[in-house]
Structures are given as structure tokens and as C-alpha cells.
Amino acid sequence: MLGVSTPVPPPGLYTQPPVGLSPALADRPVEAADPAVLTDGQVVPRQVVPAPAVGGAFSVDLDRAPQVLQDLRAARDELQDLGRDAMRLGKVDAGSHDQVSLDAARALEAVAVGGHGSLVEAVNAGLRQLDGLIEAIKSELAAYRAAESTGAARFDERA
Predict the structure, then answer these.
(1) pLDDT tens across 96-154, in order?
(2) pTM
(3) How many CB atoms lie within 10 A of CB 99?
């Protein structure tokens, strides 16, 4: 065909994906937030879910507080079970010595137990939040019961 040519992108507009680990990453254990390095050397960034921030306000219906505490403890137990599962995932055996299996086991280990952004970090953050919430509810419930007891005693003294 005459007059038709393949467009050529301007220089510097497109780049090849990075190949291999940067020297800063090579000398330490892989973490969940680290990019994945494929067997062909291509580096793929990882998506990391940040641990939730602690804080916020809440209110509890004092009549339901005992059931809420029971539910929160059950949720904490389930989250602890997930943490144990994550620890097991971090110790998965590649099963063979081919590079793909070794890379997959290493990536799974990093996502499960590899520090910042790992599943274990998220589970531990959730456990800390649940512990804080459980303690706050227990404390408020105890304070309410103490105030109620004191008020009832004062009422009885006056009667």
C-alpha cells in the first residue's frame, strides 16, 4: 500500500518493564509489599491492602453488651484461626524444584507472612482492634454497672 506507514511512538514514551530485582531488594527477605519477579526477570508491582487504622466512635446498647462481647470474642477466635492458616501458608512446600514452583512458594510466603502488607500483619491488626473494642466495651459495662450500683445504694439510703 502506498502512503500508509506504521506509526512509530516518540522516543521515551514507552519503556520496557523493569527486569530483575533492584539491588536494595536483593539482600533481604521478600515482603508482601515487594514487587514480584517473574521467572523471565519481569518485575510486577504487588497490590497491598493497608491495615485499617484504629479509632472511631461507637455506642453499645447496654442490654445487648454481653451478647456483643460474646460475638466479638467468637470473631476474634475465627480471626486467630485465620492467622494460624496464614502462618501455614507462609511455610508451603514448593513440591518440586522447578523455578515456577519455587517462585510461587516464595510469593505465597511473602503475601502470607512477609511483613508490611502481609496477611499475618492484617490479621494481627484486626486482632488488636478487636481486643481494644472488647476491652472498651467491658470497661464501659463495668463503669455503668458500678454507677448503677452506687446510684441504687444512694437511693436505698434515702428511702
Answers:
(1) 889 888 888 888 888 888 888 889 999 999 999 999 999 988 988 888 888 887 876 67
(2) 0.60
(3) 11
What residue spans define the domains of the chain? Answer: 63-158
* Close Cβ partners of 133 (under 8 Å, ≥ 6 residues apart): 58, 72
Res 57 pLDDT > 80 = no
Distance, CA of 69 to CA of 134 (rounded, Å): 6
User: Using CA atoms, how far apart are residues 116 and 121, in angstroms rounded to an integer?
Assistant: 7
Q: What are phi and psi of 44, to 5 degrees?
A: -120, 120
Exposed e or buried b per residue across 25-53, where buried means at least 16 C-beta atoms within 10 angstroms of its C-beta: eeeeebbbbbebbeeeeebeeeebeebee
